[in-house]
Structure formats: C-alpha cells, structure tokens
Design brief:
The complex is a heterodimer of chains A (about 110) and B (about 120). Chain A has about 110 residues and is mainly beta. Helices cover about 0% and strands about 55% of the residues of chain A. Chain A is built from no helices and eleven strands. In chain A, a hairpin with a 7-residue loop joins β9 and β10. Chain B is an all-beta fold and about 120 residues long. In chain B, the strands form two sheets. In chain B, strands 2, 4, 5, 6, 9, 10 and 11 form a seven-stranded mixed sheet that branches. Chain B has a four-stranded antiparallel sheet with strand order 1-3-8-7, with no helix packed on it. The mean pLDDT of chain B is about 95. Classes of the chains: A mainly beta (about 110), B mainly beta (about 120). At the A-B interface, β5 and β10 of A face β9 of B.
C-alpha cells in the first residue's frame, strides 16, 4: 500500500533554532518527492522537489534530503524564524497524474520567540 | 499569492442548504483540481479537469457536483451535505495533468473552510 508518514505530528521550537522534519514512504514506483509549506489560512506552496538521483536540495534556509534506498526524506530548517510557523507536507509521486500523488498528513511547526 | 483565488473563504451551511464554492486561476493553466483537507488526514483528490473536461472523479458522493465552464474557473456545488463533509476545500491548478507527478507544480488557492451543521 502506498503511504507517506511524517513525524513528528507537531513541533515547537525557539526562534533561531534549527529543526528537522521526517518523511518516510512506501510509495512504489518512485518518481519524485516534494515538500510543501502551508501557512495557516493558506494553501500549500512548494518548497523543493527531488527526483531519484538527487539526495539534497536547498531553498534558502530549507534543505531537503532524500535517501531513495531507505525511502526516507527530511526537511531541515536552519535559524528558524517566526514566519516558519506552518504545516509542512511531504508528497511522494508514483508517476504521471494527480492520482499518483501520495500526501503525508503534515508536521505542524510552531516557532516561538 | 499563488495566482489561484477561492471564494468564499469561510462557509457555514445546514445539511439542507445548497451552496457553491468558486475557484479562479490567473496563471493561464489548463488543469484544475478540487482537494479535500480534513484534520490529521492527507489531502484527498476529489476531481480533476483538463481543458474543461473532467478526467478524474475519485468516488466522490453525488452531493458534491463540480463544474468547469472554462480553463480559468472551477466550481463545486454543494447540496444536502453531512457534518463529516466539514473540511478545508482546496482548489489547485497546473499547466496540464500529465506533468503532475512528473515534476510539474500544482498551485493551490487559500481554500474554503466549510462547516456543515
């Protein structure tokens, strides 16, 4: 069964600290893995996307890693800011079309001053 | 803003009401989608339209009726909903449907928060 599991469910960190969010998947075949950021009251916005051959990709203070062998990905946030408070959703694609997108339930990150 | 707008942003309706959600994209895309987002559950794909034609209906109950008059507008007509239909309804768009899943990005609207009483 194609599944995407994210951990932790929620996380609270102090402003300026780093954090790492996890995504484990059982999706097969594998096409790519994308991380979205969803602010409260907003729709998801794409942060990064990685294919099988990529094991790291950065977008500013966000760095995603992918281990296709163990089917794990992480999203590392450096020097967190209050604006990083959001839900982060991992999405794994098994191929063409929206029906081949498998969404995680997200990690809710709260950054406190 | 992502270029995808949704109205209304919040909606409260009784189980016997009829209402409609509206989505408009200003990105020149040809594909549009409805998703349902419930608390602690993954996004659920409901409907897919490509060039105004419905290409996917993921076993959605008939009390949800989509309409796509053109590539820029998408509606979701609601009638006789149940309390378990309360959720955030997200609209998304992309250039086409075949690229989604192969790296093409979907752009999401802010959603309509629906509460069914």
């Amino acid at each position: 069964k194609n599944q995407v599991e994210q951990s932790p469910q929620s996380l609270i960190i102090l402003e300026g600290k780093n954090c790492t969010l996890q995504c484990n998947y059982t999706v097969s075949p594998f096409s790519n893995l994308r991380w979205y950021k969803q602010d409260t009251g907003r729709g998801p916005v794409s942060l990064t996307i990685m294919t099988f051959s990529e094991n790291t990709k950065s977008n500013g203070r966000y760095t995603a890693t992918l281990d296709a062998d163990t089917k794990q990905s992480s999203l590392h946030i450096t020097a967190s800011q209050l604006s990083d408070s959001a839900s982060y959703i991992c999405v794994v694609s098994a191929g063409t079309g929206a029906n081949n997108l498998f969404f995680g339930t997200g990690t809710r990150l709260t950054v406190i001053p | 803003e992502t270029g995808v707008t949704q109205t209304p942003r919040h909606l409260v309706m009784g189980m016997t009401n009829k209402k409609s959600l509206k989505c408009e994209q200003h990105l020149g895309h040809n594909a549009m989608y409805w998703y349902k987002q419930s608390a602690k559950k993954p996004l659920e794909l409901m409907f897919v339209y490509n060039f105004k034609e419905q290409t996917e209906n993921n076993s959605v109950p008939s009390r949800f009726s989509p309409e796509c008059p053109n590539s820029s507008h998408l509606f979701l007509h609601l009638h006789t909903l149940q309390p378990e239909d309360s959720a955030l309804y997200l609209c998304a768009s992309s250039h086409g449907t075949s690229g989604v899943g192969e790296g093409e990005t979907q752009y999401f609207g802010p959603g309509t928060r629906l509460l069914v009483l």
